[in-house]
Amino acid sequence: MTLTVDRAGLDLADPKAYADERRFHDSLALLRRESPVHWVDAPGYHPFWAITKHEDVLEIERNHPIFLNAPRPLLGTAEFDEMNRQRAEEGIALRTLIHMDDPDHRVIRAIGADWFRPRAMRALEPRIQELAKRYVDRMVDLGGECDFAQEVAVHFPLYVILSLLGLPESDFGRMLKLTQELFGVDDDEFQRGTTNEEKLQVLLDFFAYFQALTEARRKEPTDDLASAIANARIDGEPLNDFDTASYYVIVATAGHDTTSGTISGGLQALIEHPDQLERLRREPDLMPLAVDEMIRWATPVKEFMRTATQDYQLRGVTIREGDAVLLSYPSANRDEDVFDEPFRFDVGRDPNKHLAFGFGVHYCLGAALARMEIRAFFGELLPRLRSIELAGTPESIATTFVGGLKRLPVRYSIA
Predict the structure, then answer these.
(1) What is the C-alpha to C-alpha distance for residues 6 and 8, in angstroms, rounded to an integer?
(2) For the segment 71-120, what is each residue's pLDDT rounded down to a tens digit?
(3) Is residue 306 within 8 Å of 51, Cβ to Cβ?
(4) How crowded is residue 219: how many other Cβ atoms within 10 Å of its Cβ?
(5) How far is residue 117 from each of residues 114, 380, 392, measured CA to CA in Å?
(6) pLDDT digit string, tens, across residues 271-319
C-alpha cells in the first residue's frame, strides 16, 4: 500500500503504529516533508492538527498563553475525552501538571520543584550510584541472559523515584503494575481491560492509594517528597484530595516509566550500533552527550496536545480558535532541518537540541534526575561489560502517549 499523507496522519492516532518504529518514522518523515501542519480526522477521535516540525513544536510551546493544555492535554478517543470532561465537571478528574495552565500550573509546580533542583540532585547522587550498581549486579545474578526491559530497566528508576517519594519498598510492585496499566491502556498485554470503566478503575486505584498516603503524611510528616505534597498550602489551604493524588500520580508514573524506556532504548541502540558502544567505552567523558542522544533516540513521551485560544497562522495554515494540535516529539527529534543525519545514533552528538523534555514553562520537572539516573546506570555498566547482543526480538508497547520497549531480550557477559 502506498503511503499517503492522510494515511501517515492517521498513524498518529494508532497505538500499534507507535510500536512499529519503521512504519511510524516513515509516516512522520512524510508529514514533515509534505504536510507539516496536517489535519487528522481519525475514526473514534476528535480531529486535530498534527505538528511534526521541530521549529513548529517550539513555536507552540513558547506561545503557551495562546495554546493551552486544557481541556485536552493528551490524545484520547472521543469517548474517553467526553468521560474526562464529565468527571472534570464533577471535580473528580485527574489534574496533573500536564493538565494545567498558568496560574495554577506555576503554583502547583513549585510544590515539588525544590526536590529536583541541583542541590537536591547532588544529595541524591550517591544513592542513585548505589542503586545503579545494584541493578548491574542484578544482571550478573541473572546469569548472562535476561529480558532487560522487564527484569532490570523498569526496576532501577522505579526504586529511585518511589524512594524519593518515601513509599515503602513493599508497595513498589503495586506501583509498577498500576503504571503499566495506566500507560498501557492500548496494549493488549498491559491493559487492565478494554472498556473506559475498566481503564478508569486504574486511576481510582491510584487515587485510593495516594489518599491514604496523604492522610498518613498529614498526620505524621516525614522528610520526603510525599510529605511536601501532602502538606503543601495554596493561599493557606491544603490541596484538595484529587489535586494531591494527581501530583503523586505524575511523579510516581512519569518519574520512572519514561526513564526506564530511555535506558532500554539506549541499550538497544548501543547493541545495534557497536561502533558507538566501543566509542563510549573508550571515551567515557562522552557520557553526558550519550545520555542526551539516548533520550532523543527513545523519546519516551510521544505527544502532548494543546488547544488554540485564538486563530493562529502556522506555515500558511490557519489553526482556528478551539482547534486541538498534537505536538509530535518523536518527529521533532528526527527533524532533518535540525539534526545532522537524524537517523544516525551518535554518542557524541553536539549540539543536540532534542525536545524530549518539552520546552518552556512545561519543561519536564524531573529532567535532571532522569539524566543522572541514565548516566549512573551506563557509567556502572559499560566498564564492566565484556560483551552483549540481542537474544531475541525487541518489542515496543502500543501507545499514543508514553512508552518504549516492553521486551529487550539480551545475552551478555559482565565482570
Answers:
(1) 5
(2) 999 999 999 888 888 888 877 778 899 999 999 999 999 999 999 998 98
(3) no
(4) 8
(5) 5, 24, 40
(6) 999 999 999 999 999 999 999 999 999 999 999 999 999 999 999 999 9
pLDDT at 300: 97
Secondary structure of the chain in the HEC alphabet?
CCCCHHHHHHHCCCHHHHCCHHHHHHHHHHHHHHCCEEEECCCCCCCEEEECCHHHHHHHHHCCCCEECCCCCCCCCHHHHHHHHHHHHCCCCCCCHHHCCCCHHHHHHHHHHHHHCHHHHHHHHHHHHHHHHHHHHHHHHCCCEEEHHHHHHCHHHHHHHHHHHCCCHHHHHHHHHHHHHHHCCCCCCCCCCCCHHHHHHHHHHHHHHHHHHHHHHHHCCCCCHHHHHHCCEECCEECCHHHHHHHHHHHHHHHHHHHHHHHHHHHHHHHHCHHHHHHHHHCHHHHHHHHHHHHHHHCCECEEEEEECCCEEECCEEECCCCEEEEEHHHHCCCCCCCCCCCCCCCCCCCCCCCCCCCHHHCCCCHHHHHHHHHHHHHHHHHHEEEEEECCCCEECCCCCECCEEECEEEEEEC
Question: Would the pLDDT of 2 be above 80?
Answer: yes
Q: Pairing mode, if any, of strands 303-308 and 67-68?
A: antiparallel
Gyration radius of the chain over CA positions: 21
For 43-53, the pLDDT digits (tens) are 999 999 999 99
Q: Is 167 exposed, middle or buried (0-12, 13-18, 19+ CB in 10 A)?
A: buried
Largest CA distance in the chain: 62
Task: Say what the pLDDT of residue 387 is.
Answer: 98
Single pTM value for the model? 0.95
As given in the structure block, the three cell numbers for residue 255 are: 518519574
Q: Per the structure block, which three cell numbers stand in for 176?
A: 509498577
